[in-house]
Amino acid sequence: MSAEARPLAVVTGGARGIGEAIVAELISAGHRVVVVDINAKAIARASDSDAARAGLLIPLALSITDRAAVEDALAGLAEQHGPVSALVNNAGMTLSGSFLDQTDEDWDRIVDVNLKGTFVVSQVAARQMVAEGGGSIVNISSVSAHGVRTGPPAYAAAKAGVEGLSRLMAVQLGEHGIRVNTLVVGTTATPWLLSRKSEEELAKMRQSTLTGQLGDPGDVAGVAVFLCSPAAKHITGQLISVSGGQWMP
């Protein structure tokens, strides 16, 4: 299949970690993928990949909280490559801090990226999907939304907000043929995590799962790509735990 004939997917935060694994799986499944990331070095690395040279990966440096930039970028993509048929809202961020020392500034920044960013990109992409008669949106949440892990309250609140937003989106977009599902992700062995945790800390994290092991980025990617596929055409409005049993709905 030529690159131009492939359906277009967008993955935010797609140049690193879980997002990078999702991008690779989507390409393997027959999509062209727009990799949205705010990290310039990660975008440069994606731009130099074999997939980019083959026209299967389209790098896009973008802040997902900048509505005007998102609207301009997705309109340009639709004009050049066709409308978005699948969106994975993977971009997110967190900071250290507990409930007693969370600052207003950190709260605003975390909620802005994790919750507002998901809303902005979803709304802009969904308008294209409505015009095309349907699509799939997969949002990424965290077991932190369910009190499983400690951390800054803004992150837990933002991810809980993503879950509520996802259910509402599924209800209101279903009549347009758009499916919306959410992955509740547990502790995952991304390069970022592995570079910052000691072996003792990692061992404790493994013990927090029923499987006795950390998740792999590919574990999340496989489920996300399934939800973007025709095989999942009757699945919408769901919270799906990819956490090794850290959280069970």
UniProtKB/TrEMBL annotation:
Species this protein is from: Mycobacterium bourgelatii
Q: Which family does it belong to?
A: Belongs to the short-chain dehydrogenases/reductases (SDR) family.
Keywords noted in UniProt: Oxidoreductase
**Short name of one Pfam family for this protein?**
adh_short_C2
Recorded protein name is Beta-ketoacyl-ACP reductase
MF terms (GO), sorted A to Z: oxidoreductase activity, acting on the CH-OH group of donors, NAD or NADP as acceptor
Origin: domain of life: Bacteria
Q: Which InterPro entries match?
A: NAD(P)-bd_dom_sf, SDR_fam
- Keyword hit for Oxidoreductase: yes
Matching entries from Gene3D superfamilies are given as: NAD(P)-binding Rossmann-like Domain (3.40.50.720)
Which SUPFAM superfamilies does the entry mention? NAD(P)-binding Rossmann-fold domains
